[in-house]
Amino acid sequence: MNTYTVALAGNPNTGKSTLFNSLTGMRQHTGNWAGKTVLTAEGDCVRGGTRFRLVDLPGTYSLYSNSADEEAARDYIIFENPDCAIVVLDATSLERNLNLALQVLEMTSRVVVCINLIDEAEKLGIRIDLQTFRQRLGVPVVAISARHNRGVDALMELVEQVASGQLAPHPTVLTYGDEIEHKIGELEPLVRSALGTRYPTRWVALRLLDGDEGLLASLKKRLHDRAMPQSGKEGEIRYERTACH
Amino acid sequence: MSNKEVALSEAETGSRLVLSRIEVDGGMRRRLLDLGFVPGNEVEVIQRSPLGDPTAFRVSNTTIALRREESSRIFGEPEGEELA
User: Fold this and answer.
1) Residue A191 forms part of a structural domain
2) Structural domain total, chain A
């Protein structure tokens, strides 16, 4: 059976965990990334002969403010490289929620945007033009109500297509003005020669320009672990899931 | 840029401003941007606490309280006063 790893990212209170719970039922456990007091949950979900290992990342507004939650979510997406990331948005508060969505789209193209709480939005008279949404973001977008199990099948179908590579989204690339773009252009070849193509080059260049020390430390540690195989195991243990009951 | 620009800490309660500058650095700058304190965005001064600090602001549909330490470094132009 094919198994795909799927990360769930989203702001707090978007119903991310409701979706996670409805997909995984009782087949889940909470875990903790060692070295960080960040609780997360993992669970399995089998649909149509495919197994999805779902990872519920901490709910955050951003991935860059360097709180433990945000670093854990960011590191998971970059270093654990899930087969697909679902970004869960609150349909009633899209402006705020899209900040995180755009951040994730800069990190990986294997994304499905999931607009949750669509029933709440409809009650408020909010109508969402999904087709325009898809065009503007360049990734699959689906509206759901996790609480009423509405749209969840369509969501998981898209997740499978993205995870299997059958569907290859092309997220819209945000541009940052001439000065920054020029510097990105200078940095990208250097990033590629130092890290290869394992990590999204443009994104790493942007983080460096932003002076993101936390990411730099994580990258250095990983490079060091790779260069010294005997300590490589340590790096893995750091991310191993601990069951807690 | 504009002489109408005021710091959020000095803006009148109940007034709305269009943000022009965020003079805060590092992680706090990032946090403020993530919360919606972005140049061009509108902020409403909701309420000052009894001792004058912190102050509640409405931004991107959410109420956020900021201390003077931050709000004195965020600048905007009061709405309805800017020249068209």
Assistant:
1) yes
2) 2
Distance from CA of A92 to the nearest CA of B (A): 10
Query: Which of A 116-145 lie inside 8 A of B, CB atoms?
Result: none
pLDDT digits (tens, 9 = 90+) for B11-34: 999 999 999 999 998 888 988 998
Q: Do A118 and A94 share a structural domain?
A: yes
User: Least CA distance to B31: which residue of chain A?
Assistant: A65
From B27, B35, B61, residue closest to A61, measured CB to CB: B35
Q: Using one digit for the tens of pLDDT, what is the confidence trace for A75-121?
A: 999 999 999 999 999 999 998 899 999 999 999 999 999 999 999 99
Domain-by-domain residue ranges, chain B? 6-78
> Does A66 sit within 8 Å of B27, measured CB to CB?
yes
CATH number at residue A140: 3.40.50.300
pTM to 2 decimal places: 0.84
* Residue A152 lies in domain: 2-164
Judge: B31–A65 Cβ closer than 8 Å, yes or no: yes
Band the pLDDT of A245: cuts 50, 70, 90: very low
Instruction: Name the fold adopted by B6-78.
Output: SH3 type barrels. (2.30.30)
Complex ipTM: 0.73
Q: Which pLDDT belongs to residue B24?
A: 94
SS3 letters for chain A?
Answer: CEEEEEEEEECCCCCHHHHHHHHHCCCEEEEEECCCCEEEEEEEEEECCEEEEEEECCCCCCCCCCCHHHHHHHHHHHHHCCCEEEEEEECCCHHHHHHHHHHHHHHCCCEEEEEECHHHHHHCCCCCCHHHHHHHHCCCEEECECCCCECHHHHHHHHHHHHHCCCCCCCCCCCCCHHHHHHHHHHHHHHHHHHCCCCCHHHHHHHHHCCCHHHHHHHHHHHHHHHCHHHHHHHHHHHCCCCCC
